[in-house]
Amino acid sequence: MSTQANTRIVLAARPQGRPKPGDFRIETVDVVQPGEGELLLQMLYLSLDPYMRGRMNATKSYAKPVEIDAVMEGGTVARVVRSRHPEFAEGDIVLSHSGWQSFALSDGVGLRKLDPAAAPVTTALGVLGMPGFTAYAGLLTIGQPKPGETVVVAAASGAVGSAVGQIARIKGARAVGIAGGAQKCAFVRDELGFDAVVDHRADDFAEQLQAACPDGIDIYFENVGGPVWDAVFPLLNDFARVPVCGLIAQYNVIADSGIDRLPTLMQQVLRRSLTIRGFIQREFVDQRPAFYRDMADWIASGQVRYREDIVDGIENAPQAFLGLLEGKNFGKLIVRVAGIP
Amino acid sequence: MSTQANTRIVLAARPQGRPKPGDFRIETVDVVQPGEGELLLQMLYLSLDPYMRGRMNATKSYAKPVEIDAVMEGGTVARVVRSRHPEFAEGDIVLSHSGWQSFALSDGVGLRKLDPAAAPVTTALGVLGMPGFTAYAGLLTIGQPKPGETVVVAAASGAVGSAVGQIARIKGARAVGIAGGAQKCAFVRDELGFDAVVDHRADDFAEQLQAACPDGIDIYFENVGGPVWDAVFPLLNDFARVPVCGLIAQYNVIADSGIDRLPTLMQQVLRRSLTIRGFIQREFVDQRPAFYRDMADWIASGQVRYREDIVDGIENAPQAFLGLLEGKNFGKLIVRVAGIP
Question: How large is the average pLDDT for residues B236-264?
Answer without folding.
Answer: 81
